[in-house]
Structure formats: structure tokens, C-alpha cells
Amino acid sequence: MKSRPRLVAVANRLPVHRVGGIYPRWVTSPGGLVTALAPIVRKTGGAWVGWDGSTERKASPFTHDGIAIRPVSITESEVESFYNKFSNQTLWPLYHDAIRTPIFDRKTWRPYVEVNSRFARAAARTAQPGDWVWVHDYHLQLVPAMIRQIRPDVKIGFFLHIPFPPEELFAWLPWRKQILQGLLGADLVGFQTYAAVRNFSRLARDFTTAEGTDTALEYEGRTVAVNAFPISIDFKSFEDVARSRESSEAGALIRQRVGVGRKILLCVDRLDYTKGIDARLQAYELLLNSGRVSVDDAVLVQIAVPSRERVFEYADLRQEIDRMVGRINGDHSVPGRVAVHYFRRNFSREELIAYYRAADIMVVTPLRDGMNLVAKEYIASRVDSTGVLILSEFAGAARELRRAVLVNPRDVEGLAEAMVTAIRTPVKEARHNMNILRMQVRRHDVFEWADQFLRALQD
Ligand code: GDG
């Protein structure tokens, strides 16, 4: 990472948030992106452009822990139109196989352009000659071209954290051409998987003047590099916490409370319809109903973090999951043996790792997911190399984690069978697979991800 140019990160959210009432202060926000990028931004004396999550006041620029923080403000009405609607009711479902029907509302496009332009102007003001600007995710797809217009002298990278859909879906978007042109403003466009690379390049050739191969497009006299960079986690930090005495004791306590003599199946997700929470509950219910598994054999623990609660589809999903859990427990729990433990709240990172340690089986069944970091976090936390990962074929992570039990979450019967297979996997076989999975995630951690992307940006 030596002698890298100054890096300006541009993401919807800042790497810090405000806490405290009368004497508020800024603290670093948890999360993979911050862990990966903050050290590089800091080391290169760079900056971070983003929103602080509030609509109440306009925060001024400041420095936090060696990083120049450049807040962008978003109004209450833009939270609704730019964030809740265009980003999360149009783009999010469209990019995730249209699992819920995307809404196309012309009134929300203007605010998307306006907010993107505000981010681009802030980035252009912040970038010094020779800097690299790295723009993140679906909220900001117009930003690369907008920065290029103002600052053709800086290198621009873009990384999409969610899937990029095939033509059959993307073509629905009334603003498909503008979005593609926005992304083509970058020198390097990065995706989680090669399938997304292919989708993007094909669409760019079909709907814009771009020509070339999947990984190198000629556009307006420039070359735009396109490639896959599967994101990862800070393996060592998960491993370190998992190895601690506190974590080991907390894990043992969870086992004692929920599962002595039972296999613990764990699920951890944002409460989002892409994550396949309902499919896995159905599969589990099928096993209980048919008697193939009983509450004496196993218990399912679902941790679901509330998310985007002001969006209708999310409130609806929450009710649906509440109902399913109620039904399964009503039908199958016995005194002292609950069929499904359901936690609809946020856990601390340490608590989460204790659950990863306690779980015999991790069930990750998104219907579509850019990568899925939970799968990798479980692997990093299995310091004794035991445990089985059930993983959806439709998560980006499935491309790398070949020693997981791979499933099609739309096949509920097949998913139920995979759960039985996981429950019955002999320890020796589980250990062999987990060792291979651990090697994979250890080698390809989040620091390698950032490094690979920035190296490609250099070329
Ligand atoms: C997007 C893409 C891509 C969950 N519950 C708690 C908690 N979490 C943390 C997990 C994990 C993160 O949230 C979830 O990350 P995922 O990758 O699983 O999913 P998305 O939020 O949808 O992320 C995804 C990712 O971007 C990165 O590019 O992999 O495909 O959709 O880190 O640990 N954290 C804490 N308490 C909880 O209760 N502290």
C-alpha cells in the first residue's frame, strides 16, 4: 500500500455517527466498508464524503481520527424520495431479481439526480489534483460521470455492493441509459461477481456507445475497466474476538440456555425480503411437521435486525415473519424447548460472535445477495474448525465458499433436506470442510479486497 495517492471515499453514509445528548460527539460506525477503507483513507491523508444520517442540521467539515470528514446534507423530503423510494423501492428490488415489484415513479428520479449531484460536487471540491476518488453503491451511480465532468484530472473508481441485474430486468428501468452513463464515468467499475460484470458490460454495449469486451469498454475516447472484486471481512478481528475467553464463555452460556443436547441452527440477517428468512422458516416448519426433526433434536435461532422500517415492503415482511414464528412456536414448542428463538433487534458485535461460536449450523439463504458477509463472519468465528454452513447459491459468497452445503432457497423441500444433511454431518467431515473454508476467507480478507481494487485502479 506504499505511496498510494490520497484517497477520497464517497459513500451514502459517513464512517462516523453522532452519539450523546447534551454533549454530542462523533464515533466510528461499525461495518465492513469502514473497516476496510478507513485505514487507507487515513494513511493517505484522505477524506470521506457522505451523509451523517440526520436531516436536522447541516454538519460542518471536521477531522475524525485522521480522516477529513466532509458531510453532505440530505433533506427530510429527499430521505423519502431519494433514499426510501428511488434507492430502496426502485433500485434495490430491481437489482435483486425483482423479488418485490420495483416502483417506477418519475417524481423520485429528480431527487436522485439532485442528491447524486450534491455528492459529486462535494467530492470534486474535496479532491486535490492527483487524488483517487472511490464511489460506493447503488445510491450514487450517477456520481462517477458527474465528478468527471467537474474534475477530469482525478482517477475515479466505483464499487457496487449489490448484484447488477441481467438485461431482462435492468431494461425495465426508465432511466437505464442515464444510470449506465453515470457508471461509465468511472475509470474502473467493480462488482461482487463476474456475472454482474457480464451483465453490466453487455448492457453498456446495448444501451450506450460503449464498445469492447466484458472487462474493458471503450467509451467516449477512454477505457473503462470492469471487473469482479468479491468483498470480504476483517478475518483476524473476528477470529481474535472469537478466541477470547469472554466470547467462549458467552457462547457456552448460549448453548446452555437454548440448546443443551440440541443442534443450534443460526440465522443472522437484516430484516430484508432478499434474505430468504421466510423460505428457511418454511423449510424448518416442514421438518417439524413431518417429524423428521423434533424440538428435542434442534432449535432455530433467528436474529433479524430491523431495517428500512419506513418502507412498506419491510413493515409487511416484519408482520409476515412475526406470524410465521408465532405459528411454528404455537404448533411445536414444549415447556423449556422453544422451536424458534426470534430476536428482532440489534446485537453488539461481541454478542453476535458469541452466537456464531454457539451455532452448530449457520443457515444463510438469501434469494439474491451481492456477497453476504454473515457467511464469512461465521467461518472466521469458528476457531475450533467445527460447524456447517448452509449457503444459498444466489449469494455472491457461493462463488468462493464451495465447501458450504449449497442450496437453492426457492426449493423449500431441498432446503429442508440440506438442514437434515447439515444436522447429520459427521464431525470429521465438517471439520475438513470448515478448515478449507477458513483458509479461503483468511487468505481473501477485506484488506486484500481493497488492495486489489486500488491496484486495478492504478493500471
Ligand atoms: C450489502 C449487500 C454485501 C447483522 N446483524 C447484526 C449485525 N449485522 C451485520 C453482520 C454483517 C452485516 O450486518 C450484514 O452484511 P451482509 O453482507 O450480510 O448484508 P447487507 O447488509 O445486505 O450488505 C451484501 C454487503 O453489502 C457488503 O458489500 O455483502 O450482499 O447486500 O456484517 O455482521 N451487526 C451487529 N449486530 C447485529 O445484530 N453489530
Helix-strand blueprint:
Blueprint: E1 7-13, E2 16-19, E3 25-28, H1 32-43, E4 47-51, E5 62-64, E6 67-72, H2 76-95, H3 106-126, E7 132-136, H4 143-150, E8 155-159, H5 167-170, H6 176-183, E9 188-191, H7 194-207, E10 211-212, E11 216-219, E12 222-228, H8 235-243, H9 245-259, E13 263-270, H10 277-290, E14 298-305, H11 312-332, E15 340-343, H12 349-358, E16 361-364, H13 373-381, E17 388-392, E18 405-407, H14 412-424, H15 427-443, H16 446-458
Parallel strand pairs: 1-4, 1-7, 4-6, 7-8, 8-9, 9-12, 13-14, 13-16, 14-15, 16-17, 17-18
Antiparallel strand pairs: 2-3, 5-6, 10-11, 11-12
Helix pairs in contact: 1-16, 2-3, 3-4, 6-7, 8-13, 9-12, 10-11, 10-14
This protein binds GDP-alpha-D-glucose.
Residues 30, 32, 161-162, 231, 268, 270, 303, 305, 346-349, 352, 369-374, 377 line the site of GDP-alpha-D-glucose.
